[in-house]
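# step 3/5: fold
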Amino acid sequence: MQKQNERYRGCVFYYSKHLNGERTSMMSRVRTRLMIVVTLLLWSSGCQIPWDQLLKVDHTTIDPAPPAVVTQPQFRLLIIEETADRPTLPAEQLGIFTSTTLRDYLDQHCVTLADGSHGYRIVDQDDVANLPAEFQATAKLKRDATPWLYCTDGTRGLSTPLPADVDELLAKIRPYAESDAR
């Protein structure tokens, strides 16, 4: 009987040594088996764990408090940049500042301000004091870096780093520009 036990222990040692690269302790094998048994019991009893909901991660950031910048529900946009940093920006992002597609879109969708200009501005962070009154509260909002994008339809807002290119920017602002709040 003792030889049989020694042979069994030798087999366990052999398999555990070759499966795990080293001899595993009896407690770790017991824990592993216990976890397998509990999982099988839960599964066989009909318990369903919503793994897809437990492991779902949403990386989008939504500003719960939109910028309090507009008293009228109309689309406005503000981009604050540091013009001295333009040479360091990627070419696609730099294209935002000169895009006629973007300017045409903003001309069509932004509200007309009291001074008769369109309700969008792209300004250097050192020139925010010269913005129209409609943008003064927005310019004071916290931003982590430049260039920074703010837009609002008057009821909700977006405050985020400037997207990588014109298409991505248009995709981000379209829900605000074409909302029913206007």
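# step 4/5: annotate
Residues 2-20 form the longest helix (19 residues).
# step 5/5: archive (pending)
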